Amino acid sequence: MDDPVAGAVFLTVLVVAACLLAMASPVIAGRWPAALLLHRWRWSPLIWATLLLQVVVVEVTLPGALAPVLHVATYAVAVVFLVVNRRLTGALVVAAGAATNGIAIAFNGGVLPASAAASAAAGIDPDTGFANSAVVDNPVLPWLGDVFAWPEPLPLANVFSVGDVLITVGVLLAAWTGTRRLARGALRAEATGGALDNAPAAPKTPGGARTEGSCGGDR
After folding, report:
1. pLDDT value for 214
2. How far is CA 114 from CA 27, 69, 117, 143, 206, in A?
3. Domain residue spans of the chain
4. Is there a contact between 142 and 113 (Cβ–Cβ < 8 Å)?
5. Which end of the chain, N or C, is less surrounded by CB atoms within 10 Å?
6. What is the pLDDT of residues 123-161, one digit of tens each?
7. Cα–Cα distance between 6 and 189 in angstroms, integer?
8. What pLDDT is recorded for position 212?
């Protein structure tokens, strides 16, 4: 591929699928990811800025020196967003993963270096390149690149990096922090602000039966 950055994306389909599975894992196990779903995100426009930069890098033909800079900038913006939201467990782990990918990209001309062996195991032709990284000559910090393979014939066969692993682990930590057991009564109580659990019990009559409310009348 003439310009490996032109097809760059922030995360491969493989990593996106792993992150989605990590987020869904509490629900699969009968838990509700309360902390993740109820977290109040700060500086949320930053993540939209990251996605916008990615679209520009992927879709727009840019001068050779500008494309690598914007590619690295997407990682920098993502790291800032995650650090601002560091109160969410796992956010800093995701930030560390994004930072390691960004550092490797910055030192390798705007592309994440890939291992030739890993690319071969995943069935990727290094001569045609692919959407996230490429085999480069004399890579800098090669151990931070795509040195692991999700091999063929497995679905979504691709290569991935240490940073990708950290991103997935961070999402998993965020999903499982503060989980609650999924139960019909618990969900009803959550929806009513705990009214079901905190409502006072009706008083009992001398015979042991509970009295009806004032709207129920005497029977």
Report:
1. 43
2. 34, 19, 9, 9, 79
3. 4-182, 184-219
4. yes
5. C
6. 887 655 444 578 888 999 999 999 999 999 999 999 999
7. 51
8. 46
CB burial class (10 A; 0-12, 13-18, 19+) of residue 68? buried
Q: How far apart are CA 122 and CA 179, in angstroms?
A: 35
Flag whether the pTM goes above 0.85: no
Residue identified by tokens 């014939």 is 153
- Is residue 106 within a helix (H) or strand (E), and if so which, with residue range? helix 91-106
CB 156 within 8 A of CB 150: yes
Q: Is the pLDDT of residue 14 over 80?
A: yes
Using alpha carbons, list the distances in angstroms from residue 20 to 58, 70, 72, 82, 182. Answer: 23, 26, 24, 18, 19
Which tokens is 80 given?
Answer: 């800032």
Going through the chain in order, the beta strands assigned E by DSSP cover 31-32, 112-113, 133-134, 148-150, 158-160, 180-181
Interacting residues of 26 by C-beta distance below 8 A, sequence separation 6+: 32, 33, 175, 176, 179
Give the residues across from 204 on adjacent strands.
Answer: 210
| Distance between first and last Cα of the chain | 85
pLDDT band, very low/low/confident/very high, at 10 (cuts 50, 70, 90): low
* C-alpha span between 11 and 98 (Å, rounded): 10
Please compute the mean of the pLDDT values over residues 102-125 and round it to a whole number: 89
